[in-house]
Amino acid sequence: MKKILIIVFTFVLVLSYSQSKKVNILIMVDGNPCLTVSNVSIETESMNVIKPQYIVGTVDFIQNDYEKFIDDQSLNFKVNFQTILPQFSTPINYNISLNKNILQQEYVIINIFNI
After folding, report:
1. For residues 8 and 14, what is the distance between their CA atoms, to the nearest angstrom?
2. Which of 21, 26, 17, 32 is nearest to 81 (CA)?
3. Tens digit of pLDDT for each residue in 47-60?
């Protein structure tokens, strides 16, 4: 019985992992990694808004959204997100535009400096 439970659990993990895709992106603001990022959205000129999940260091896409994003022919994409910085009590919205070529790198670090 224990072996069957382990096999079923492993199958569920493999199945759930195959349904999502990750892009390694670390968002840094003022030299510190953003630990609380919310309301992440990605869009291009020809694609509807996609709302992936951001966990420090990775952006997790649903399989279909990942394929739409990668297959999209636009050269640039916009990333919108919200974060709370230690020196501010209210969330700050960031809207940045990036070239899609950066996704060819294994790991991307986005440094944002508030002036």
Report:
1. 10
2. 26
3. 889 999 998 888 89
